[in-house]
Amino acid sequence: MFEQFLTPAYLPFAITFVVMIGIGLIEAVGLGLGHLNIDGNSGIEGHQGVLDWLGLGSELPILIWLTSLLGCFTIVGIAIQQGATAMSGGPLPWGAASGCALIAGGLLNTLAASGLARIMPGFETTVISTDDLLRRRGTILEGTARRGAPARAKVLDHHGQAHFIMVEPHDDADAIPAGETALIVRREGKVFFVVPDENRLLQSI
């Protein structure tokens, strides 16, 4: 069976299977690429309906959807070739088999993606909004943060992931040197404004 899987008639499905395994490994090591979601609000008429039909209109991560599609394509393709061999004594040409498998696999994946989305309603992502960093403490890494002269700081989100941001003191008179910690209180564009922990108002926080 393995030798048959490497013949030209089965080669597209063998390649697809290897790619599917590769994507699965990427997910397993936690690179997070599968947490990218398709935004259905593109402003194009009927776009959301197409995404729903493909199974992309839900919150299912894109790499999980793609892995499902590759799996459906592989399974359907092998089934087509096995059926053709049983009926006619030989598999279909790889191009014809691939075309049929793409159509049938896409239809099957619509059902598979919908099922995955239903059983994964609580899928957690480590992707956060920039504003989620507000009211967290950061550490000045280099330089001294002054008004009009931001410094680079490191802050950990609630997942424990590090983010590197530019910060300025909230108060004009403050200057926060490297190594000091400060509370992030607001944001303007890409710059965050902080209050140093030595501020008396923060001693009880």
Automatic annotation (TrEMBL):
Segments forming domain Inner membrane protein YqiJ N-terminal: 11-104
Keywords assigned by UniProt, alphabetized: Membrane, Transmembrane, Transmembrane helix
Membrane-spanning parts: 9-33, 62-80, 92-112
Keyword Zinc: no
Keyword ATP-binding among UniProt keywords: no
A Pfam entry, by short name: YqiJ_OB
Inner membrane protein YqiJ OB-fold domain location: 134-195
Name of the protein described by the UniProt record: DUF1449 family protein
Organism of derivation: Sphingomonas populi
